[in-house]
Design goal:
single chain, mainly alpha, 5 helices
């Protein structure tokens, strides 16, 4: 009898200890987050960095809530926030039109002076 109870406890623990398979949404958001982290602009001080960090923060919050097994309504709200942040990132134009600088015609005249070259 003791052996049977022990085996039952071990099998239930084994079944309950199985990792939960992440959903396709979780995998998609994780791919977004890893893609943002791999961009060099994420770590630089550029105008685009703020929007990249916003998308990264929203995706991190989604992943944390998903791992904590939150309600589907909360996850839906977080996914909408991610979509809005990505739309803001895509809509903005980050390439300002800088006028090319005109090169000035500067001429340097180097004169060889015998007195100073002997030092």
């Amino acid at each position: 009898m003791k052996k049977l109870v022990f085996i039952f406890i071990l099998t239930t623990l084994h079944v309950l200890a199985q990792p939960r398979i992440p959903s396709s949404d979780y995998k998609y958001v994780l791919r977004i987050q890893r893609g943002i982290e791999s961009e060099v602009g994420f770590y630089l001080d550029e105008p685009r960095t703020g929007d990249l960090k916003k998308v990264h923060r929203e995706s991190t919050e989604y992943l944390l809530l998903s791992e904590a097994k939150a309600d589907s309504e909360v996850l839906t709200l977080r996914s909408e926030r991610i979509k809005k942040a990505v739309e803001q990132l895509v809509v903005k134009n980050y390439e300002p039109n800088f006028k090319p600088l005109k090169k000035k015609n500067i001429r340097y005249h180097y004169i060889y002076i015998d007195e100073f070259s002997n030092d």
